[in-house]
Please model this.
Amino acid sequence: MAGEPEDLIKPHTGDNASWLAPELDELIEWEAVQRRRDARRAELLAEVHTAGLTDIAHGQRTPMWLADVCDLPDNTARTLVRISTRLRDRFGPLADALHAGRIGWQHVVVFDRLANPRIINELVELLPELLVLADIATFERWSQELRGIVERLDQNGGYDPANDTRNNELHLTPTIDGYTHVSGRLVGELALMIRSLINAEADRVMARHRCDAEHCGDTNNLASYANARAEALAELLERGATVPDGTGRLIEPELVVTYQPDTNKLTDNTGEQLSPAVLRWLIAAAMIRPLELTDTGDPLRMGHALRYANRHQRRALAIRDGGCIFPGCTRPPAWCDAHHVDHWNHNHPEHGGTTDIENLALLCRHHHRVTHRPGWSMQQWTHPEHPDTILFRWHTPTGRIIYSQRHGIRWKAEATRSSA
Model:
């Protein structure tokens, strides 16, 4: 496919050509420009990431900064940075073809995904032939041919994906619509075992549903086998959680439930409202541990009695902060430290910062280190419209002020200049 827009498609000469041609030409021009812009974006991201510019200026790694300023999903930002860097460092011919308009960004994504470390060198050597194929083949055909080449190269190297346990993955992704998406891949013995167990339990679930439907005289609304598999997975996990491990311990899941007095609702630590069915399960499972908080969400203050936040305080921090409070960071509470904003004094604790909720904030390990860099300082600040809300800000060596987030909510600097 040539790079100039007029070469990408020949204008139609039918009766409607007079009014269709301008729109078609504009779409072709848009695609050509988009490919050049994708190539330039990749160049910029690779340069910025290699130089560490976002970390120096903003305390954010490149993917986090990109997701924050461009409102991109975290996975999308990480993928863009990774592919952009590899495109510059390893896939030079692919980058040139993208800039020339011979291929689109989707070609680059597929090539990067399939170029695993075992065969990457051989695959890069085949790039000239693969680009010639891209000139004449549809994207689907090109992708199919590339997958076939990768499989043959892997087989020649003696690699069997069914025996590589690193291919076993499971992802649990909560979404804004209240669903949790379960995805992943399983190979070998683990795949056979899990598939067999879930299907066997699903058969029992389906039999139970059919029996219930016959007794109720409603056989037209039976659950699907996919519904039965989901229920089967839950039942297997629940039964397994009641069996102690080799040390005699049981699994102890924990969920922080918050009562919202203004709405009379109960939510989990992500702010998702809990349904009556979920609450009944929580009560039946005897997992509720009450924790008394103040009107502003503060737990008991420990002053200088303790250096590290206790379990009650960490639970309350999980509710208040929702994870790392550095803007753009998505690390969950379990991956964070309870940082003393006014530092704890090792030699004279009575003269240092207190282990109180006002002086504690959740920071992931990376942003904890950023906060301790020379020239960086962190302190509490007050939002003029929310004076009772505990918030924080950083002053950077370059004079910038960075305002903390809470539960993924960013506080705009413009709204706080009067209190800066």
